C-alpha cells in the first residue's frame, strides 16, 4: 500500500510571507486601520484570512468582508513574484512522490492556489488539493483532511500530515492520522513539540517517514 502524505502550504512548502504581509497591510491602509506589527500578523498565518482579521481587529467585524476583498485584489497582483519554495521543498516532493500519494490541505483560497502551484512547478506532484473553499470547517477541524483522504480513496492507515502550525497538528489528530511538524514556518516550536515530532524542513520530515517505511 502506498503511503499518504498531506502537506500544508504556507510555511511548510512555500515562503509566502512577503505576499501575505504586503497584501494584508495594503488592505489595512486602504481601510484606514492601524497596521499591526509584522510579527503579530505572521503569528496568525495558517488561519483563514477572515479569522486573522477578526483576531487582530475584533471591534471591526463589519469590515471583514471588505478587508478580504481588498486583500485579494492586492494579493492577485504580487503573489506569483513574491512567493518562493522553501529550502529543500522541491527535494522533499521528488522523494515523497516515489512512495506516497500526495495532497495539499491548506486554508488558502482556491482561486489563486492552483495557479501558484503551477507557477512554482510543483502542481504535478499532487493528486488532490483541498483549499478553504472546499470545506465548511477548516483546520483545526478534521474535515479537510478527511476530504483529502476521500478524494484519494485512501484510509487513515499510513497517512501523515506535514505542517508548520498547531492547526495542522490538531487537524491531524482529529482525523486520526500522524502529524509531523516543521520549524521552518509560522508556528510556535515549543507548542508543536508537545504534540508532534518536529523537523527543520519538509525534506527531513520525508526522510523520517521513509525510514519508518523501510523498517
UniProtKB/TrEMBL annotation:
Catalytic activity, EC: 3.1.3.18
Chemical reaction(s) catalysed: 2-phosphoglycolate + H2O = glycolate + phosphate
Broad enzyme group: hydrolase
Superkingdom field: Bacteria
GO terms of molecular function: hydrolase activity
Pathway field: Organic acid metabolism; glycolate biosynthesis; glycolate from 2-phosphoglycolate: step 1/1
SUPFAM superfamilies: HAD-like
InterPro entries in alphabetical order: HAD-like_hydrolase_sf (IPR050155), HAD-like_sf (IPR036412), HAD_2 (IPR041492), HAD_sf (IPR023214), PGP-like_dom2 (IPR023198)
Family: Belongs to the HAD-like hydrolase superfamily. CbbY/CbbZ/Gph/YieH family.
The name this protein goes by in its record: phosphoglycolate phosphatase
Organism of derivation: Campylobacter taeniopygiae
